[in-house]
Amino acid sequence: MTDLAVRIAYRGDGFSGSQIQPGLRTVEGTLLSSLCRVLEMEPDDICLRMASRTDKGVNATGNVASFESDGADPVQLLKALNSIYGGVLCTAYAPVGDDFFPRHADMRTYEYVLRSDGMDLGLANECLSLFRGRRDFAGFCKAEGKDTVIDLVRADAEEHGETIVLTLQADHFLWNMVRRITATVIRVASGRMPMSKVEEAVSGGWSNFGIAPAEGLTLTEVRYDGLEFIPSTDPALRIRRANGLYEAALTDRFYRNL
Questions:
Q1: Which residues, in sequence order, are CB contacts of 255 under 8 Å at separation 6+?
Q2: CB of 75 within 8 A of CB of 233?
Q3: What is the DSSP letter of 38?
Q4: Predicted structure pTM score
Q5: Helices 235-256 and 74-84 meet at what angle, rounded to 10?
Q6: C-alpha–C-alpha distance, residues 124 and 229, integer Å
Q7: Which of 55, 84, 212, 220 is the most interior residue, by most CB within 10 Å?
């Protein structure tokens, strides 16, 4: 049974990926442990499911988990889960039925943040335009036997201070797909590879342009048409956000003054 979907956020550097792995600290394992403690239920009765798997080092601000909460008050449940924390924050919730499966999302959005130094924003966007639309991404992923044709509805780059943020959006992604596309963009935008190489690869050739580091990647949204998430009103969550932004501002000032 399933009765609640929760939007979760976490920094990937503290986990060995999202999926449960024996003996390793993972997002799913941490959340399941917290749920068992708060709900006083056995793991099998909670039926925890995740919308998207993320690799070791990959961040998320908009992943989604669903589970059986035994009718618990979702507002108080999120407060209790956030008080335990463990590296996973629950930021919003939505009541759902037994027919809800988090992996059946209508849209997913990823962002990759890279340094703008030595990068040409125009070339980055031109490169990304080659991936936009319905394409066969066999040369830019680990397919694992899955269909490699995906409709990439958004792929663009914007400059933000000393960084360039790549945004990619589709109903689903293949393993390492975003990081391989990002590595390709970096090569082109830094002038280390001609655009023609990308055109050949997108047209059906095999690419070997590398994989961008996991740390720059964030899953920012998993969207379900017709499902509206209710933001948590937990004051502790607002305080944690404010403290994080303050620490980031201090770090920013320090390095700007070097």
A1: none
A2: yes
A3: H
A4: 0.94
A5: 40
A6: 33
A7: 212
**Strand pairing category for 49-50 and 217-223:** unpaired
Q: Are strands 217-223 and 59-67 parallel, antiparallel or unpaired?
A: parallel
Residue 218 near residue 18, CB atoms below 8 Å: no
- Residue ranges per structural domain of the chain: 4-104+225-248, 107-219
Q: How far apart are CA 123 and CA 133, in angstroms?
A: 18
Rounded to 10 deg, the angle between the 195-202 and 121-129 helix axes is: 20
Q: Domain 107-219 belongs to what architecture?
A: 2-Layer Sandwich (3.30)
* Residue 120 is among the residues annotated as catalytic for this protein: no
Q: What is the pLDDT of residues 3-26, one digit of tens each?
A: 999 999 999 998 999 999 999 999
Q: Do 142 and 94 meet the contact criterion of CB atoms below 8 Å apart? A: no
User: 94 - beta bridge partners?
Assistant: 5
Give the C-alpha separation, 6 to 14, whole Å: 20
Q: Do domains 4-104+225-248 and 107-219 have the same CATH topology?
A: yes
Pick the CATH number of 4-104+225-248 from 1.10.3720.10, 3.40.50.720, 3.30.70.580, 3.40.462.10: 3.30.70.580
Q: pLDDT for 100-143, tens place per residue?
A: 999 999 999 999 999 999 999 999 999 999 999 999 998 898 87
202 touches 131 (CB < 8 A): yes
Tell me whether residue 213 is exposed, middle or buried, using C-beta atoms within 10 angstroms of its C-beta: 0 to 12, 13 to 18, 19 or more.
middle
* String of DSSP letters for 94-106: EE--TT--TT--S
What Å distances lie between residue 12 and 217, 219, 237, 244, CA to CA?
A: 9, 10, 19, 16
